[in-house]
Amino acid sequence: MKRLLSFFLLSLPAALTLTAGNIVTDTIHSKVLGADVCYNVYLPSGFGKQADARYPVVYLLHGLSDDYRAWRDKGQMQSVADELIESGEACKMVIIMPGAGGPDIHNTWNGYFNMPGWAYEDFFFTELLPTAEAKYRVVGDKGHRAIMGLSMGGGGSTVYCQRHPDMFSSCYAMSAWLDEGSLKADDSQPKDKLYYVKTAVREHSALDFVEKASEETRNELRTVKWFIDCGDDDFLIDLSVRLHQLMRDSRIKSELRIRNGVHNWEYWHEALRMALPFASRSFDCNGK
Question: Chain-centre distance of CA 173, in angstroms?
Fold first, then answer.
């Protein structure tokens, strides 16, 4: 019996390795940004073994002052994705984690929107998305594409879905930076790169978008599955609650979860455990 138990324990790591995914780091030279942009890609177990296999894709966006390594290193996303896929809670998917910033927020461009000197949204949709999806065997349609992110990335995810509802099946916004009210009260801030990202968030307000949307636009937003997730002690909680209220008033269905927590990686690590199954439920995992 002891020998059998010892054999089982020794074999367990090898068995887990067989079902583990892999994260690769890639770089794309952007003509739009005039720079090389790094991104990480999670590839599920078995990726590449079938030449004709195609996968749904999730775009997983980081927050202000982080970069493409944040979800891998701080969010431990690989272990979460492996566990959920192995348990059947999520289907096999490719997860793309693009870089959109860095720690020196005053002197380094951060953000997912177009602003003077940093046309990131153009880069995302005209360069990153088509290049990465062709390279990593993504199905490449609305029904097999989702987007999610935290803080600045949560706001970016939401606005990308609002502006391109024909491209995403779902959006999961974690502790999302959806608007920027400080500029209304204080326009005397130094015009550094942090000022420009704040200005871009204000100009791309997810709240204003819903409030001003036409009925035609609201119909398009109803084709996306929305999930808003924020901690009860998060300083951005009012924005999440307000967005949910506006969407409810506009008859745009969304899920809202206010859980115990603050604006930190412990919260987002747990949020990812809900976000990937949520995205997966909108995919046709038995299709292409």
Answer: 8
The sign of the dihedral angle between the CA atoms of 226, 242, 212, 123 is: negative
Cα-based angle 196, 95, 117 (whole degrees, multiple of 5): 20
pLDDT band at residue 285 using 50, 70 and 90 as cut-offs: low
Q: Phi, psi (5° rounding) for residue 235?
A: -70, -10
126 DSSP 8-state letter: I
The residue type found at 240 is S
Residue 70 burial class via C-beta count within 10 angstroms: exposed 0-12, middle 13-18, buried 19 and up = buried
DSSP-derived secondary structure letter, 240: H
> Residue 145, Cβ neighbours under 10 Å: how many?
24
End-to-end CA distance of the chain: 45
Rounded distance between C-alpha atoms, residue 62 and residue 100, angstroms: 8
**Would the CA dihedral through 257, 263, 268, 269 be positive or negative?**
negative
* Structure-block tokens of residue 241: 């609650």
Is residue 61 pLDDT above 70, yes or no?
yes
Task: Give residue-wise pLDDT tens across range 106-146.
Answer: 999 999 999 998 999 999 999 999 999 999 999 999 999 99
DSSP 194: H
CB 256 within 8 A of CB 228: yes
Task: Look up tokens 């566990």; give the residue.
Answer: 83
- DSSP code, position 124: I
pLDDT given for residue 187 in this prediction:
62
Residue 12: is its pLDDT beyond 50? no
Residue type at 187 in one-letter notation: D
Name every residue whose Cβ is closer than 8 Å to that of residue 113 and which is 6 or more positions away in sequence: 120, 121, 156, 159, 197, 200, 201, 203, 204
For the entire predicted model, the pTM comes to: 0.91
User: What 3-state DSSP class applies to 109?
Assistant: coil
